[in-house]
Design goal:
Structural class: alpha/beta
Radius of gyration: 19 Å
Largest sheet: 8 strands, mixed
Distance between the termini: 25 Å
Number of domains: 2
CATH class of the largest domain: Alpha Beta
Bound molecules: adenosine-5'-diphosphate, magnesium ion
Shape: globular
CATH superfamily of the largest domain: Acetylglutamate kinase-like
Number of helices: 10
Helix content: 25-40%
CATH architecture of the largest domain: 3-Layer(aba) Sandwich
Length: 317
């Protein structure tokens, strides 16, 4: 099978972890130990989040007095692809001796006409008091919005349209390589009327890019791996209940939060609706069990998995 895996940023840097290089490196080695066995049986594409890392680099850049202005988000996104890509590359090479592994820097095309540009909604970086946020907004041209009792910078999160280097990734897969790519959803770029690419101040959702890439590569499965074993109904309430096998319509009926489970559910639904394949949401450490059909929230057109079984939707919980 050709499998696209999206690794959650939270699997690389757990909430409360110090963002030290050594901590992230250790977490990545644990992630790779969970994923490497899949590479023996499947073609593997690994994408990853970059939320905490890009936030940290943005702060460092903003605090650097030798800069006229902080580095823009496209550049910071590329930096995180290099940093996380390097750790993944080396850990995968160590875990898969003899296998070719490649970490690519990728750009993701977005539309300049995407309504997200008129309504930046994705919170990035630290929280501020209102006055300070408004001062920074005036000084740096930021848009800031209230996030609960605090204020934060917001940037547009346009819908990914195409990973620019898709054909190259396909080439790598067909030659047997494991491809680490499209980290942080890819560096957001637009193409102008002369066909030229330019980076934009935006962030692309990594789960949506993973779904796009999986479809473009004709993948059989899309695994959205994170720090919870399944998507839940009524999450956080006393009658929370895990969702086992389900259909895109079944998943779309659930009111998931936009900042966390929402994009994973949307990504899973898009991939299954477009390809008829299987998408799943679950724990990094259950990757093999999810592919075998014994763990995770598994989404298929008819809610059965493997597709030739008679399991009714929701029977595996
Ligand atoms: P990642 O870095 O993997 O993208 P996110 O924080 O974006 O992680 O999404 C995973 C988180 O979503 C979980 O840690 C959990 O706290 C949260 N979450 C929100 N709603 C749900 C739900 N209905 N079921 C399971 N987890 C949920
Ligand atoms: Mg997320």
């Amino acid at each position: 099978m050709r499998v696209v895996i999206a690794l959650g940023g939270n699997a690389l840097l757990r909430r409360g972890d110090r963002p030290d290089a050594a901590v992230q490196h250790t977490n990545i080695q644990a992630a790779v130990a969970a994923l490497a066995p899949l590479a023996h049986r499947h073609e593997l594409v690994i994408t990853h989040g970059n939320g905490p890392q890009v936030g940290l680099l943005a702060l460092q850049s903003a605090a650097d007095r030798s800069l006229t202005s902080p580095y823009p988000f496209d550049v910071l996104g590329a930096e995180t692809q290099g940093m996380i890509g390097y750790w993944l590359l080396q850990s995968l090479q160590n875990a898969l001796p003899g296998r070719q592994v490649c970490a690519l820097l990728n750009q993701t095309l977005v539309s300049a006409a995407d309504p997200a540009f008129a309504n930046p909604a994705k919170f990035v970086g630290p929280v501020y008091e209102r006055e300070e946020a408004e001062r920074l907004a005036a000084e740096r041209g930021w848009t800031v919005k209230a996030d609960g009792p605090h204020w934060r910078r917001v940037v547009p999160s346009p819908d990914p349209q195409r990973v620019v280097e898709t054909r190259l990734i396909r080439l790598l897969l067909t030659s047997g390589a494991v491809a680490v790519c499209a980290g942080g959803g890819g560096v957001p770029v637009i193409r102008d009327e002369h066909g030229q690419l330019t980076g934009v101040e935006a962030v692309v959702d990594k789960d949506l890019t993973a779904a796009l890439l999986a479809e473009a590569l004709d993948a059989d499965a899309l695994l959205l791996l994170t720090d919870v074993p399944q998507a839940m109904r009524r999450y956080g309430t006393p009658d929370a209940e895990p969702i086992g096998r389900t259909t895109p319509a079944g998943l779309r009926a659930e009111p998931f939060p936009a900042g966390s489970m929402g994009p994973k559910a949307e990504a899973a639904c898009r991939f299954v609706e477009l390809t008829g394949g299987m998408a799943a949401i679950g724990s990094l450490h259950d990757a093999q069990a999810i592919l075998d059909g014994s763990a995770g929230t598994v989404v298929t057109p008819n809610g059965r998995y493997p597709q030739n079984t008679n399991d009714a939707p929701g029977s595996q919980t």
